[in-house]
Amino acid sequence: MKKQVESILEEIKDLNKNLVFKKKYKTLKIMEVCGTHTMAIAKHGIRQLIPASIDLISGPGCPVCVTPIREIDKIIEIIKKYDATVFTFGDMMRVPGTNSSLLAEKARGKKIKICYSPTDALDFAESNPDKKIIFLAIGFETTIPLTAVIVKRAFEKKLNNFFVYSTHKTLPQALNALLSDSCINIGGFLMPGHVSAITGSSMYEGIPQKYGIACVISGFEPENILLSIHAILRQITGNDFRVEIMYKSVVRPEGNPVAFSLIFDVFEPADSEWRGLGLILGSGLELKKKFEGFDAKKIFPVANPVSCEPPGCRCGDVIKGIIKPFDCKKFGKSCTPENPVGACMVSSEGTCAAYFKYMAGI
Amino acid sequence: MCLAIPAVVKKINRNIAEIESLGVLKKIDISLVPDVRKGDYVIVHAGFAIQVIDKEEALITEDYWKQYFTDEAGFEDNEEEYFEAGDNEDVQ
Fold first, then answer.
1. Contacts from A298-303 at CB under 8 Å and sequence distance 24+?
2. Per-residue pLDDT tens for A132-141?
3. Contacts of B50 in chain A (CB under 8 A)
4. Backbone phi, then psi, for A204, in 5-degree steps?
5. Is the C or the N end of chain B the one with fewer CB within 10 Å?
């Protein structure tokens, strides 16, 4: 394997040298839009292995990081106003709201539980019929079908104490919004492996043709990421822009139709705010009318909180790939994983957390 | 968030499967992969199997290696090693 990795690195260097020589680019920006890719690239030192003229940047691939501060504030308002138990994934706990976080509220005695699977929340609701349970649902297409399964199950079981607060977002709309922002000049996308396992490759079909951008769906092993970078360079060399799957053991062109169709059985698209990217039309998901009895936003109404981002926090620019974490004055100083200011430092898959953990001193 | 790990299916009981991943046995939900069979490898995300790993399709990535990076002296010898790495794909 070592020899293959060496030969692929040589090929990447040759292709890149040729492309720079032919003035196809001075610097090629390749954006990954998956937090697990962000971590893998940092952990395996892939940035340091490839030529400096290939710039790997991180995009809006971490669901926790792109959740706007207003959503955190709203869920905190709900637990302050109503007697309910909130279940969520661990990464959400420490994301700072304007004045508090879920972790701080838990320390003050509010009922907040970390779950491994959404089914934990549903099981708890079933065995505690006297308690109101809210599942704070977060995630892209990889996770949305899981929420859909438990909502359908709650419907079939006629549970009246189980609710979902959806912050779910869909990725293709965000990529299109990002590409229409003229200050971001992306030459290639490393597309997310597990989102694509659900959606298939057709979700991205419009992007290569419309924007002339290479799109390669990558796995997570370092060798697979290098193969995907190589595939991007080959597409650019041949002016042959398309969606290519380099994670074929898991990603089929049609995705997982059972899981994908479930999303739209339960949810319908809605406009959604993204940290850094602003409001993106049709990029969020809310429960359909049939399931509105489970919609925590309707059952537990709260006034719109006055939310404001921490002063000086540049998570928004990091999420858009405009700056690197090192370019933020707070990075590694007043903002660290132990004491995060912004969401990108909180999530274990946030870009700032990945840079802090693996690239400090580089 | 989208972290998912491979696991082998040991037992199936309706929508619940017992799986083994890195030596750990666990029960997961298989509602999203209704065609899964005992012995299949699956990708597990937050307590659900989200896709069945296709070993034949994994060969296509191997073909890519062969096509562009075949090391005449070493590739065949290392084939097993590649598949072992492939089986553990994305374990972080």
1. A299/A163, A300/A78, A300/A81, A300/A82, A300/A84, A300/A134, A300/A163, A302/A74, A302/A77, A302/A78, A302/A81, A303/A77
2. 999 999 999 9
3. 142, 145, 194, 197-198, 256, 259
4. -105, 0
5. C
Considering the domain A1-315, what is its CATH architecture? Answer: 3-Layer(aba) Sandwich (3.40)
Contact flag A7-B92 (C-beta cutoff 8 Å)? no
Q: Which CATH architecture has domain B5-52?
A: Roll (2.30)
Residue A109 and residue A95 in contact, taking contact as beta carbons nearer than 8 Å = no
- Contact check, Cβ <8 Å, B68/A36: no
Give residue A309's pLDDT. Answer: 86
Q: Which residues are within 8 A (CB) of A205 and not within 5 positions of it... i.e. 6 or more apart?
A: A243
Q: A1 pLDDT band (50/70/90 cuts)?
A: low
Q: What is the pLDDT of residues B48-71, one digit of tens each?
A: 999 999 877 665 555 665 665 554
Report yes or no for ipTM above 0.85. Answer: yes
CA of B42, closest CA in chain A: separation in Å?
A: 9
* Strand, coil or helix: A6: helix
Interface contacts (A, B; CB < 8 Å): 153
Q: Where are the domains of chain A?
A: 1-315, 316-359
A157 CB-near residues (< 8 Å, 6+ apart): A126
Residue A98 has pLDDT above 90, yes or no: yes
Domain boundaries, chain B: 5-52, 55-87
pLDDT band of residue A123 (cuts 50, 70, 90) is very high
* Residues in B 21-60 with any Cβ partner in A closer than 8 A: 29, 31-34, 43, 45-48, 50-51, 53-55, 57-58, 60
Q: Is the per-residue pLDDT at B91 higher than 60?
A: no
Nearest 10 degrees: Cα torsion A263, A267, A271, A276: -50
